[in-house]
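This section describes the prediction task in plain terms. A model, or a person checking by hand, is given the sequence of a single protein chain and must write out its three-dimensional structure as a string of tokens. No templates, partner chains or ligands are provided. The sample shown here is typical of the held-out split.
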Amino acid sequence: MRHRFKSIKSKIILLFILLAVFQVSVMALFAKFHLEPSIVNMYSEHLDRSADIALDKTVEEIRKIEKYTVNMIGDSRIQNFLELADSTGNRTSLMSLTPELRNRILSYTDYDNIIQAIYLIDNQGHIYSNQGQLKMQRFLDENSLLRNRTDASAVWYTEEDGIVLYRIVNNNTTDLTRKIGALCIFIDKELFEERLNNLMMEKNQHYLMEGSERNFFLVSEKNVTLNEGDIVSTKEQEGWVLKTWIDKDTAYAPVNMLLQILMLELLILLGISVGLAVFLSGRITRPMRKIGTAMQQIGEGNMDIVVHDEDQDEMGILAATLNNMSLNIKELMAQIHKDEEQKRYLQLKAMQYQVNPHFLYNALDSIAMSARRNNDSTSEKMTLALSEFFRLSLSHGMEYVTVAEEMRYVQSYLEIQSMRFPDSVTWECRIEPGMENIKVLKFILQPLAENSLYHGFQDSGREGHIEVTAYTGKEDLFFQVKDNGAGMLPEQLEKLKEEINCRQATEKKIYEGGFGLPNVQQRLQLVYGKKAGLIIESEWDEGTCITVIIPGGREQKKDEESKDS
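The expected answer:
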């Protein structure tokens, strides 16, 4: 088995099968553990809303029917009729319900078709109605305790063939607690159930409704039971309880259907995967075997091997690349020899550059000593400043210097310029304590000072002053070169900002004025990132202030010489 799965073809077939199984398994697990609870929650919320609406509407219907009875009980003719029946005690001496009285009773029901029959019962148990009396008599016989009922509230009953509302009638003129009879309404049970069924939102939704006195019991179907796992919602209002539920099989039917579809999909995907894997593996492995053989020969030193594959797919491109590689290896090996020779040449050249600065320092020191012997202090100071300037600028070939060294470098430059142009410029350099040994990129301050001298004070006819300051922020380093020179007009300032931010500035432009502001800007961003650079502020006839920002400069290592190697 292990040997069989060493081939790429068998691995591709196995991979396709595993991918198909994984995909369907993930979908099945998602359906089982995420979709199924979501459906249960959805049905629960759906049932709650359905039960609320159904119970509200049903209780409203019950209140309406009870209101019919209240209006009937308060009618003076009905009161007189029952008073007369109660006082006479002999039904034969009473007239039966007149058509006028029957119509008056029905008018209180708004002729609602859910009302099947209305009965008046006197204290002797005599029944008066426009319908047959057998149904009413059977109800009274089955519920004989109603004869002694004194509670004036309505009581509801469910019978095999109907729903009954029973209510005693008290005298409403002289003695409100004296019972003079009873009122009973038979309600169409099928129509009541139909109205309740119409309020259910689901086709397979079951319900059970009960009254507060347990005489009323209504279910959606006979012999229906509530099973474990069914989704149930129970609502209660004014003593009426409505319990509605959906079978778990109905609720989980979408999930079960999805799982069946996923199993069918798995079988189809497995068949497609095996067919595609067999086809694709053959297309892939044949050219790969050719390329593998060719690479083995190249590894043995045969650089003239050529793989013939005219297809334009990835294997064809790989074969063409291998052919080009074999043709270029000889040239690359020759180039390696040339590079080694060039490297040795550059090492010798670097050693030569290490010697030349020492000759320059010694020559400048000799000139300074000669000036001292001739009592030429100005020449001596300028020569020593120039020697210091060159020594700091070379920095033993290092790209990074300390803040103190960078500040000494600009001081040497300003000192030389002050000797060239005495009484024309003064300068001041300050470093925030603790910054002296932080390493920064060199040659970032001298071009700014040079810019102040040649553009701020040239032909201005005023005595200039330059302030060079180094300080820190929260995480960043800041260098500021500020002068009181001529300044710039707004359009000149915008033009200068565009020039220093132009990354396509040519080498000629960069070197026209020494290092120049564009060069400083580009070097800062190359080393410290996009957030580094120059911020230029200037007002005409007031001066210019250039701020150098080095983000994260406080975290710079004190020794960056490894970057120069």
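For orientation: The two ends are 55 Å apart (CA to CA).
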